[in-house]
Amino acid sequence: MANITDVQLERYKKLEKDITILKNAEYNNAQLYSENLEEERKKTNKFKIAAIAFGLLALLGVISTYYYFNTKIQEQNVALQKIKKETVSAENEMTLAEQDVYAVQIGAFVKRDLSLYSDGFINFKEIKAEGFNKYALGNFASLDEAKAFRSELVALGIKDAFIGFYQNGVRQRIEEVEE
63-110 pLDDT, tens per residue? Predict the structure, then answer.
């Protein structure tokens, strides 16, 4: 067996100590790398969650804005329809108020309201009276014209149609007019 000198033994111990230090440093470096990698993953996940949350908030904002403006447009459309209906109704009343006209009444209903369908249909009159929604067609200058139109409506199946006379916008009995 070879003899080892004290100097060699010291070198060997120092070398062994340096190897242990290097191994510990390598282990610590690997540990730090692993910790840094895990911390980066957590930051990335937090960023992804924040991006998703921001995206959802932005989407909610867009949906809320759409709903708000859509509701406002619907409200404006309802208001516009009401104004149109009132305008047509006022035009019809003016037509009746300005002259003496005959009209053929085609029905009087409690539960039916056809005014929703009459925008712009000037020869269609809606008269709300005595709890009824009454509907008449035409503006005729003479009783003969109204009778001819009534006959056509009866032929079409509207058997209860009858003639009404409006003098200055007020309904009159035809017998009173004929006198």
Answer: 999 998 888 888 888 888 888 777 665 655 555 556 677 777 777 767
User: What is the distance between the alpha carbons of residues 141 and 69, in angstroms, rounded to a whole number?
Assistant: 48
Bridge partners (DSSP) of residue 42 are none
The β-bridge relationship of strands 170-172 and 162-167 is antiparallel
Q: How far apart are CA 127 and CA 79, in angstroms?
A: 22
Distance of CA 83 to the CA centre of its chain: 20
Share of the chain above pLDDT 70, in %: 80
What is the Cα–Cα distance from 33 to 47, expressed in whole angstroms?
21
Which residues have C-beta within 8 Å of that of residue 160, sequence separation ≥ 6?
A: 106, 107
Radius of gyration of the chain (CA): 47
pLDDT at res. 16? 93
Q: What is the pLDDT of residue 174?
A: 75
Please identify, in words, the CATH class of the domain defined by 99-178.
Answer: alpha beta
Q: Which residues contact 102 (CB under 8 A, 6 or more apart)?
A: 138, 139, 140, 141, 142, 143, 145, 146, 163, 164, 165, 166
Domain chopping of the chain, boundaries: 1-97, 99-178
